[in-house]
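Support reply, case 0932

Customer input (verbatim):
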Amino acid sequence: QAVPLPLAKLRAALDFPTDDDRTKAMAVVAGLSSNPAHRRFLILKAGGDILRLMQSRQPAISDTAYAAIGILSGQEIDRRDLPSWERWLERAKAQELEKPEAAVPSK
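Our regenerated output:
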């Protein structure tokens, strides 16, 4: 049986003030990134946050964000190539919006 996750709260935690909080939130995101049930939310709602955190100076955050976006994308783009990641995210968002599921879970 599926356990409901407070995805909106998880996304908010990606902006918490401490590195420790963001590290933990990013670890949960990375864990969810291989689950197709969360792909739409992660791409449409948290994708920009993941890319932003991939640029963090804290290795625990940036490495986990890079792992998460790599799992979501199935791509092996250099982590420093932000323009390529942004292009991938825009294409992925467009593809998700074309799918029949109209609702994006926020809770």
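We compared this against your earlier run and they match. Two observations from our side: The CA atoms of residues 10 and 63 lie 18 Å apart. The mean pLDDT is 92. Please reopen the case if you see a mismatch on your end.
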